[in-house]
Amino acid sequence: MSIEMMVLLLICALAVAGALAGVVAVARRSRERPTRIEANPMNPRVSAEVHAGEEQVLIHLARALGLPSDRDAVGYGEIYIAGSAGMTMKLASRSEIGRGFDAEVRVQRTRRASLAEYYILRLPGDETLHDRIVGLDEQIDGALRSLDPQAQVRRSGRPALA
């Protein structure tokens, strides 16, 4: 076997090894998503015991999130505050066919504090919207902590942080 043939085989072997390494890296990165997003009205994505009144929690969240409250003020796929009823604030994304993102922040009084819970009710398959929802999780977490620095905030798939 000539030296040229051995060099060619070595180059081919390195190319195959590089391609395989790339496939493995992409597979690992796709599994390293911070949390899997699922619509689940029974399991909150963010839950917190906040030492403040129910109305105070909802008002603070609405202001801290900075989301418009008018559907016409947002573009297709963008998130807005769809309304509130009692101690529940509804969030949605604009969708012309009614298949957008739907979520709720529910607040109820307990003996020691107010329990704020954020649930995703419906989730479309739009990946860019998923990125916004992960950002919304962060915003809700931060807003609850800014209202009560001692809040016990829990996020689905993550340990509680004090």
Would you kindly provide a written description of the structure presented here, covering whatever features stand out?
This protein has 162 residues and is of the alpha+beta class. The chain has 3 helices and 7 strands, in the order αβαββββαββ. It has helices spanning 3-31, 54-65, 127-147; strands at residues 46-50, 79-85, 88-93, 102-109, 114-122, 152-155, 158-161. The protein has a 7-stranded antiparallel beta sheet with strand order 2-3-4-5-1-6-7. The longest helix is centred in the N-terminal third of the chain and has 29 residues, at 3-31. The protein is elongated and about 80 Å long. It starts with a helix and ends with a strand. The model has no long low-confidence stretch (mean pLDDT 84).
> How many beta-strand elements?
7
Oligomer state of the chains in this structure: single chain
Which descriptor suits the 3D outline? elongated
Largest sheet: 7 strands, antiparallel
- The portion of residues forming beta strands comes to 25-35%
What is the radius of gyration?
23 Å
- What's the helical proportion of residues? 25-40%
Question: Kindly state the mean pLDDT as a whole number?
Answer: 84
Elements, N to C (H/E): HEHEEEEHEE
* Tally of separate helices: 3
Q: Span between N and C termini? A: 67 Å
Poorly predicted tracts of residues: none
Which structural class should the secondary elements be placed in?
Answer: alpha+beta
Strand order of the largest sheet: 2-3-4-5-1-6-7
